[in-house]
Amino acid sequence: MNEDDIATLRARDFWGALVLIGVSLFFLVRTFDIPLWGGNRAGVSGADWYNSAAIVPLGIFSAMLVLSVVLLIISVRAGGATRALSAVGIGWDRQEAIRFTTIGIILFFYIAGLVPRVDFIAGSGLLITALTFGFHRGLPRRMILAASAVALCGAYALIAHLPQAEWAAHDDDVVTLLAWATLTGLMLWRARDDRVLRVCPAIAVIAPTLLVCAMAFGFRQNVPNRGGIIFTQIEYHYYVTLRPIWRS
Amino acid sequence: MEFVLSQLTGFGGAFVALVTDPLTYAYLLVSVFLGITFGALPGLTATLAVTILTGFFGNKIPLDYSLIALLGAYVGAIYGGSYPSILLNIPGTAASAATAMDGYPLAKAGRGGEALGLTTTASFIGTLIGTIALLVFVWVLLLLSQNIASPEKALLALFGILLSGTLMSEDLVVKGWIAGLIGLAMAMVGLDPLLSEPRYTFGWSYMLSGFQVVPVLMGAFAIPQIIDGMRHMDVGKVAALKGRILPNLRTVRRHLPTITRSGVIGTGVGALPGVGEDVAGWVSYGVGKTVSNESDTFGKGSLDGLLCSETANNACIGGALIPLLVLGIPGSPPAAALMGAFKLNNIIPGPTIDPEIILRVVAIMVLASVTMFIMGIFTARIFIKILQIPQVVFLPIVMVLTTIGSFSVGGGINDLYLMLGVGFVAYFLNMLKFPIAPLVIGVILGGLFDETFRRSLLISGGDLMVFASRPVAGILLLLNLILISSQLPFIRRGFRRLRGRV
After folding, report:
1. What average pLDDT score do residues B426-447 get?
2. How crowded is the C-beta side of B472, counted as CA atoms within 13 Å?
3. For residue range B173-226, what is the model confidence (pLDDT) as tens digits?
């Protein structure tokens, strides 16, 4: 690391130490909710301090508070506070911010919106296409476009079918499939000469299909959204069309 | 003598059972191939390989096959890191960072084939040295560990967290310790192990069972790798592979002292709780540079330098399994992931482990190292082709693998939310140069530390002297204190002054 990197790191340490001090204090206060001196819960008496469930967490959060203060002192002494509070900031440029934010959006909407509610093959196909197309050449416009596609489908699934009772609905599957097809079409049109992007549609179809089938039929495990629009068809034909062939 | 014979017989039995089962080969071939691929692709690590396969195979197939898959991937990935180190000057894994120092200059000088062949041989011998040490020392330590009670276990868990925090910190040691404390704090969530008192659940019933190991592992190791990997997508120019890969026996014999020494160092470093293959590689490289006759060529394409790190990082695997199997304390981050697989199968590594499992682990390690050697020698060119595929193709698949693996282990969406939350926290900690391995080791050892610490106090009636009055506990307490005080500024200044005078 060069001197500038270290200076940036100390500025980040300054903010990091402040967050850690806040977190330590918050949890220290919460720790005192746990009976420490002779509490009684569910008929079990915690008569002595050394028997308390709070004793180890107290030690952990106290130590964390002390170490966070040490980190704060180190960063302030190294000029981290001055740099952190100045316009120089924590060393992130616009490109970096866009990249992280778009990846964050894609992952958030994939896990929170798509995986529970949308067909796993469709959701994962969209994710693979979005990540590959959006981040292959590092172009910010593509990143934003890819993140928007995933965010649109994820947000629709979240808003339209928030409670678990509605996770089997298929309209969000259709929206995702449409977004996936549009993104794939755009990718193939924009990047006809790129070998990586040309193989992406095949990977986006094969990888999640193989994984979900291996998990469901090979390992006999539960898979996300069994009632998804594509997976129900695969499951139906596995049990009704294919399995009887070797069973008989 | 009788004991040794019975162990050898047991090992022979486990080995024959494995060799005669055709499924063994299927799992070995696939897992070692996947392991080498993960190791060879910069940005994907050995820990990630073992973590993802834990989600995929952990509790879905019989334990024996699951161990074959995980150990095969572990051995393969540590070895696979040498490919980009030699051909790209980019370490595939942190464990191969020292390999790049001499590997790349050798490849540039047209000796890439020779370097890869020797690396493969050294990795193979290194793995075997670590495995033999595992077979020998694990029994000695298991006998000794029968006398280890709660105070010693608590101090040992603390020592593991502190040591990994100290040695794995890239920046300040205090950050490693904070990471370990964050892990410990995460382990406190849920019902406490003695009184079943709910802690930090905030009324969410899911949190009563605490942070599950696999989603935490996936979140801590996979998500930051994926986010970080998307930032560095393009592979550099791969150096041309010239020369034959099959190693020259005379050259191997000439470097045998270096290989043996590095194997012993790697095993020793691996046996330290919480310290991984990357530390083993650098320590061995440092020692090699000090004692080698050709130390002036180190860093300029020395075969000795190349073999130092490559032997040590593979030998470290066997070493890292010693504390895992004997004490239930993982010796390295991939061993921590392996511990997750043991937990999924309701096996508690430590003094109470079934000795049969240890013999099977040793037999699997021997077979995995042989598979790695054969694959490394005869299919190296396939991995070089894989090396040219950009990460942007692999990382989205890794994300899908991580998701379905984590979901199927817990069978719930909550595990995925936990994984994502831990992943983002781990990414920011990474960005601030906090090491992640101590955090994961803290999560894994937190329950053990909490239970044994309080049990010790309960037995002694709150007398803290229980941690000093027993001989082994006293030594461990002293080690912990030395470790902490060695980082205090005035003591460090004193040491520097003393070194200056000497």
Report:
1. 90
2. 13
3. 999 999 999 999 999 999 988 888 889 988 888 888 888 888 888 899 889 888
| Count of CA atoms in the C-beta half-sphere (13 A) of B192 | 27
Q: How confident is residue B87, by pLDDT bands cut at 50, 70 and 90?
A: confident
What are the counts of helices (DSSP H) followed by strands (DSSP E) for chain B? 24, 2
**Distance, in angstroms, between A61 CA and closest chain B CA?**
7
Pair B160, B483: CB distance under 8 Å = no
pLDDT in tens, A162-174: 988 888 888 999 9
pLDDT in tens, A128-173: 999 999 998 888 899 999 999 999 999 999 999 998 888 888 899 9
The pLDDT value given to residue B371: 95
| Sign of the dihedral defined by the CA atoms of residues B217, B218, B222, B224, in that order | negative
SS (H, E, C) B282-349: HHHHHHHHHHCCCHHHCCCCCHHHHHHHHHHHHHHHHHHHHHHHHHCCCCCHHHHHHHHHHHHCCCCC
Chain B: give the shortest CA distance to residue A244, in Å.
24
Cβ contact A101:A150 at 8 Å = no
Distance CA B204, CA B193 (A): 18
Task: Report CB contact under 8 Å: B60, A16.
Answer: no
Q: Please, which residues 145-174 of chain B have a Cβ atom closer than 8 Å to chain A?
A: 171-172, 174
Q: What are phi and psi of A52, to 5 degrees?
A: -75, 145
**CB contacts, 8 Å: B407 with chain A:** 115, 222-224
Average pLDDT, chain B: 86
Cα diameter, chain A: 77
- 């990047």: which residue's tokens? A191
Measured between alpha carbons, how far is A39 from B197 in angstroms, rounded to an integer?
11
Contact check, Cβ <8 Å, B413/A224: yes
- pLDDT at residue number B124: 95
| Residue B335: closest CA among B97, B78, B145, B146 | B78
Q: Do A215 and B408 count as a contact with CB atoms less than 8 A apart? A: yes
Please state the rounded mean pLDDT for residues A46-52.
75
pLDDT band at A229 (very low <50, low <70, confident <90, very high): very high
Residue of A nearest to B202 (CA): A30
* Residues from chain A contacting residue B178 (CB–CB below 8 Å): 20, 64, 67-68, 71
pLDDT in tens, A69-89: 999 999 999 887 888 777 655
In this structure, are strands A39-41 and A44-46 parallel, antiparallel, or unpaired?
antiparallel
> Which helix (H) or strand (E) element contains residue A41?
strand A39-41
Q: Hunting for tokens 């940005």 — which residue is that?
A: B43
Q: Pick from B172, B393, B457: which is nearest to A74 by CB?
A: B172
| Confidence class for position B362, pLDDT limits 50, 70, 90 | very high
Tell me if B262 sits within 8 A of B126, measured CB to CB. Answer: yes
Q: How many CB pairs under 8 A join A and B?
A: 168
HSE-CB at B318 with a 13 A cutoff on CA atoms is 34
Burial of A158 (0-12, 13-18, 19+ CB in 10 A): middle
Helix (H, G, I), strand (E, B) or coil at B357: helix
Please state, in angstroms and as integers, the Cα–Cα distance from residue A30 to each residue in A34, A131, B199, following that order: 8, 40, 9
List the single best residue of B178, B389, B449 to mutate versus A (max A Cβ within 10 A).
B178
Distance of alpha carbon A119 from alpha carbon A228, whole angstroms: 4
| Structure letter (DSSP) for residue B239 | P
Tell me, letter by letter, the H, E, C secondary structure of A211-248: HHHHHHHHCCCCCCCCCCHHHHHHHHHHHHHHHHHHHC
Q: How many CB atoms lie within 10 A of CB B453?
A: 22
